[in-house]
Design goal:
The protein is of the alpha/beta class. The protein is built from 10 helices and 19 strands.
């Protein structure tokens, strides 16, 4: 039975369609993702906390869902928008379909809307607050609710997605007895943990509220700052922890640090830099990034709505290593004296190209050199 649903933006645009997933209302910032595949990884990426995701590829759900493709323990986004949800799942690994997956996690979806028109609206006007409802279909009421829902600026969403206690990562086809990496979980994707383990690292994941002293007590060879949702500015406790570990490293010598996505933004703040909100963010698996040191261009997976202000970084201490070729924004940096570096994109992909997985090997080499 078809259930009617509607999506409203804060500017008054209302699109009608058919519901799938849970019979609820979902409110958040509406963004678009340009990936052609990997919808389950998108659904389970904690960085989408507080957002409604529009998939630009027209057919979603054809290969179903399975436990191996999940990037975290749950679905975090507030709503899911597609042009057409496949009625058939055709994959030997499929353990369910998108409709049932969203129902299980209490998340609403809408299909049958013009995702091209919606994406053009978001590119022109920027990411906007929105609401999907299967219960209230009145356009004026929906638009008012969309305007009333909170935005991302100034909200600490990391505390809502981080793990609650320390755990050791044992999956990924590798792990130990190589360098011991402590991962500050700001919303970490399993793909990052798998890549660290595959590179031979012993991986310990700790909550974002872990203090510098508690990290030091684990005697790490390196620190990973993970991806995560929303605005980095209010996540002051993590910035404070990172700054303390830079200023007073556990073993009395500089601690190798690798930041990914939100991790780069946190690292930049710890080094004295600032961040700002992008117009509609970078969400997808086809963003070209240039390595300024080699001249090589990698196609990357990205998911962020905030970015580091290049001009705010201390130029005498930080080297810009990567730039986005679409808009010239900062995609990578490295400290000139310390074994500290970061990228704004996702080298683990999941989903997406594997052009940048070498960065995990670079991190391992950095830790080995620091230990000598």
């Amino acid at each position: 039975m078809n259930r009617p649903a509607a999506l409203a933006l804060e500017d008054g645009m209302v699109l009608e369609g058919t519901a799938f997933g849970a019979d609820v209302e979902g409110a958040g910032e509406v963004v678009f993702n340009t990936s052609m595949t990997g919808y389950q990884e998108v659904l389970t990426d904690p960085s989408y906390r507080g957002q409604i995701v529009v998939m630009t590829y027209p057919l979603i759900g054809n290969y179903g869902v399975n436990p191996d493709d999940a990037e975290s323990r749950s679905i975090w986004l507030a709503g899911f928008v597609v042009r057409e949800l496949s009625r058939i799942t055709s994959n030997h690994q499929a353990a369910g379909d998108v409709d049932g997956y969203l129902r299980e996690h209490g998340v609403v979806g809408i299909q049958g809307v013009d995702t091209r028109a919606l994406t053009r609206r978001l590119r022109t006007s920027g990411a906007m607050r929105g609401l999907i409802s299967t219960q209230d279909l009145d356009p004026a009421s929906l638009a008012a609710k969309a305007r009333a829902c909170p935005g991302l600026v100034g909200r600490d969403l990391v505390r809502t997605v981080t793990c609650r206690q320390l755990y050791e990562w044992r999956d990924g086809g590798g792990g130990g007895p190589g360098p011991r990496v402590v991962v500050l979980d700001c919303g970490v994707k399993y793909g990052i943990l798998r890549c660290l383990a595959a590179a031979g690292c012993e991986v310990t994941v700790v909550p974002s509220f872990t203090t510098a002293g508690e990290v030091a007590a684990l005697d790490p060879d390196g620190l990973m700052l993970s991806n995560g949702p929303g605005d980095p500015e209010p996540v002051k406790n993590v910035t404070t922890t990172v700054r303390a570990l830079i200023d007073s490293p556990p073993r009395g010598r500089p601690l190798p640090i690798f930041g990914i996505c939100l991790g780069q933004q946190i690292l930049a703040q710890a080094l004295g830099g600032k961040t700002y909100k992008l117009k509609f963010g970078h969400h997808g698996a086809n963003h070209p990034v240039k390595d300024l040191r080699t001249g090589r261009v990698a196609i990357t997976t990205q998911n962020h709505g905030f970015c580091v202000d290049i001009d705010s970084l201390p130029g005498g201490e930080v080297e810009i290593t990567h730039l986005n070729l679409n808009d010239g924004t900062l995609e990578g940096m490295r400290h000139k004296r310390l074994p500290v570096f970061s990228v704004q994109y996702h080298p683990e992909a999941s989903p997406g190209p594997h052009d940048a997985r070498y960065l995990f090997e670079d991190f391992v080499e950095l830790m080995k050199k620091a230990a000598q």
